[in-house]
Amino acid sequence: MAVVLLPAVLAAEAGGQKRFELDAATVGEALRQLPLQNLLFDETGELRRLINVFVDGTDARGGRLLEEPLTPTSEVRVVGAVAGG
Amino acid sequence: MGVFLPIGTRKGLFFVRSADGRSWEVEGPLLPGWSVYHAMADPRDGTLHAATNNPFYGATTHRSRDGGKTWERSEELGLPEESGLKLNATWHLEPGADAELWLGGDPGVLFRSDDGGETWQVNRGLLEHPTRERWQPGAGGMCTHSVQLVDGTMYVGISAAGAFRSEDGGESWTPINKSVAAEFMPDPYPEVGQCVHKLLAHPKQPERLWQQNHCGVYRSDDRGDNWERLDGNGLPTSFGFPLALDSDDPDVAYVIPEQSQEHHFSAEGRLGVYRTADAGASWELASEGLPDRAWVAVLREGLAYDGAGNIYFGTQNGSVWTAPRGGAQWTEAVRDLPPILSVEVAAA
Predict the structure, then answer these.
(1) Which of B30, B64, B274, B348 has its CA 20 to 30 A from that of B14?
(2) CA pair distance B141, B219, nearest whole angstrom
(3) Which pTM was predicted?
């Protein structure tokens, strides 16, 4: 099972749960199982611009993003983009 | 005298309470991580509603039916894909007729909920308004920040788009901007494009509207068909954002002018509330107790009044000020909150 880790604001919106174990083949499949759809994705279904996703420490925006493949041991970390000083 | 003020800030929601109007207690932050552009308690059932925004996770609303202990987020809120628009921010919540709830947002949009804020349907009359292509977002975006329902008529104020009136429950909207200046446009008196900063209808004289605009303070006595400009009558500047009325006296209004459109701080370097008691024919400074030397901003949702005539405002430097009817003496109820975005009065 892949593991998805959430930052504090999203964890609060998911009932306080910060860590999810999910059966998912891609990043998109994993994120779409979370109870946070309208916070992660805008009304066109696009991942919000300032949300970054790291798979085993690698920025998925540098790869295939939502199509990035996961293994049963993948760790997916959702992170708000660093902005400002 | 019990007072309960839901205070929206850039860093969450705070409750400010007083049992006697003299000593104040602060609870919060609730909804940490969210900028609360506006929060209010629905007088029909006490449910707390908040227009919540986050730079990473978008624009939404939250509601609490247990006094803020637990919160639920709206499930369906967004713009239809064919509009080509995306919801940038949620701005203002307003109870409507029967069970309906209204939500104003950016870009110049309005939503209606019939299930207490769980799901929201976009108002097509505004979304597809024939003048929309002439609306130009300003520095503050294009927010529907004022939603008023009086005597069966609806009004909205949209920054950089103007004021609009609906007499069919929001199906269609008529621009009501005659004689309202848009000095930043090539035609200074266009049909639409005026930058309303706050619009209020008087609850007991429903044909009377007031607005603080980018270009002046105005009053209408015919539901917005005609407007009279009032800021040459004793106000230090024509620019500002907040506006408050007196629920018992339609001739009373309060504004907090700012220096100019380039300089968003209190006019003339003093934190001054200006009051008219003669429908805008003259304005008087009501600043006893307020700092004489101050460069403070009060945002469009930052000034509120209650049914007893008491007035309250919150500043960008985190202070909440209160005064009894007339504003003769101000007291700093709370200080050092995060930058205040909105102040409302709720049943204590």
Answers:
(1) B274
(2) 24
(3) 0.96
| Tokens at B185, concatenated | 């446009």
Contact check, Cβ <8 Å, A43/B32: no
Q: How many domains does chain B have?
A: 1
List helix spans (H) across chain B.
124-127
Q: Do B78 and A43 touch (CB under 8 A)?
A: yes
Whole-angstrom distance between the N-terminal and C-terminal Cα of chain A?
36
Q: Which of A12, A44, A80 sits opposite B56 (nearest CB)?
A: A80
Residue B34 inside a domain? The answer is: no
* Architecture category of domain A2-80 in CATH: Roll (3.10)
Q: Which two tokens stand for residue B56?
A: 């990473």
CB B22 within 8 A of CB B28: no
- The DSSP letter of residue B163 is E
Residue B347, C-beta contacts closer than 8 angstroms, at least 6 positions apart:
B4, B41, B43, B46
Cβ distance of A48 and B73 shorter than 8 Å: no
* ipTM for the predicted complex: 0.91
| Structural domain range at position B191 | 95-334
Greatest Cα pair distance, chain A, in angstroms, is 37
SS3 of chain A: the string is: CEEEECCHHHHHHCCCCCEEEECCCEHHHHHCCCCCHHHHECCCCCECCCEEEEECCEEHHHCCHHHCECCCCCEEEEEECCCCC
Q: With residue A40 as reference, give the H or E element that holds it.
A: helix A37-40
**What is the nearest CA distance from B299 to chain A, expressed in angstroms?**
23
Whether B60 maps to a domain, the answer reads no
Q: How far apart are CA B272 and CA B287, in angstroms?
A: 5
Q: Yes or no: say if B228 and B216 are a contact pair by the CB < 8 Å rule.
A: no
Q: Virtual CA dihedral for B8, B14, B18, B19, nearest 10 degrees?
A: 120
> In a mutagenesis test of the A interface, which of B56, B61, B79, B120 is the best target, namely the one with the most A β-carbons within 10 Å?
B56
pLDDT digits (tens, 9 = 90+) for B55-111: 999 999 999 999 999 999 998 899 999 999 999 999 999 999 989 999 999 999 999
d(CA B83, CA B105): 15
Note whether residue B113 is domain-resident: yes
Q: Is B140's pLDDT higher than 80?
A: no
Cβ atoms within 10 A of the Cβ of A57, count? 7
Contact B5, B17 (CB under 8 A): yes
Q: Are A42 and B32 an interchain contact pair (Cβ–Cβ within 8 Å)?
A: no
